[in-house]
Amino acid sequence: MAEKIFNVLFLCTCNSARSLIAEAQLNALGKGRFKAYSAGSYPTGEVNPLALEFLQGIDFPTDGLRSKSWDEFAAPGAPVMDYVLTVCDDAAESMCPVWPGQPISAHWHVNDPAAVQGDEQARHHAIVTAAATLRHRIELFVALPTAALDRMGIQRALGEMGQR
Q1: Residue-wise over 117-144: b if at least 16 C-beta within 10 A, else e?
Q2: pTM for the full predicted model
Q3: Is the domain 6-161 a CATH 3.40.50.2300 member?
């Protein structure tokens, strides 16, 4: 019997940098056990060019990355999520849609690199910092022994990852 592939939705307000970086990282690092998606409560409709440049620079696939509304994942026929992770405080505090299947959810605050003002070096540093934070949490998530934990144990572990 094939091992279950877990669907994971990363949420952010704009879906232009953090959530897209998380999507790309989990899809690359998830060892085939995860299918990641991302969306925003108020998507910009554009992927942050520095986020794309960063992901391409570390040879992570960027095909199909796009800024989209979380409404796509609450609609009939959308993939059923096993996990929903917010990566910005605004999305965590927003009234989220009701997700079919009652996915496990957690909040992983990550500073918004798209909000950084300044020269290109400062903006690039913000992208790298956000990506490193996400990568660390994603590596912990991928290593989580989900078969040995109950739903509450997984929820607790994900919440603790977000506080590191």
Answers
A1: eeeeeebeebbeebbebbbebbeebeee
A2: 0.92
A3: yes
